[in-house]
Amino acid sequence: MTGHPPGPIAGHGERILVVEDEPAFAELIALWLERHGWRPEIAPDGAHALRAVAEQLPDLIVLDLGLPRVDGWQVIERVREESLVPIIVVTARGSEADKVRGAPAPCRRRRPRWRRSSGRGSGSTAALTRCSSPTPRST
Questions:
Q1: Is 0.70 surpassed by the pTM of this model?
Q2: What is the DSSP letter of 139?
Q3: Domains identified in the chain and CATH numbers
């Protein structure tokens, strides 16, 4: 027994990169992921995230947009050049422009549904940034 009830979202040891510059929030996300069977790794900024992705591609990225050094949008752009790894954007930004920018073109055509969460700040939103398979650049 693992100490938590089994459920439909239990992981199987997949590596999840949590990119968040607020240590308490990053630790909270990582703790939840670990308790549900995933292997979280924390990157405190975009530069660390890109290094972590280059060293070993995660199975999923949980990404804040407002990061020091390299912001979340730049992380998404650089990761998409090489990989189709799913990215969940978690941010306090609530503008419609940020939501649309976070969704690839095929998602915009399908009118994605945006779910409010009760994360940090009343304007927190979460969105999956991959609805289809964009083509990474060939080298």
A1: no
A2: -
A3: 15-128 (3.40.50.2300)
Residues 6+ apart with CB under 8 A from 36: 4, 7, 9, 10, 11
CA angle, 31 then 37 then 38, to 5°? 70
Tens digit of pLDDT per residue, the chain (139 long)? Answer: 445 545 556 678 899 999 999 999 999 999 999 999 999 999 999 999 999 999 999 999 999 999 988 999 999 999 999 999 999 998 776 555 555 555 554 444 344 444 444 444 444 444 444 444 444 444 4
Q: Using alpha carbons, select from 59, 60, 63, 7 the residue that is nearest to residue 35.
A: 7
CA-based nearest residue to 126, from 92, 72, 90: 90
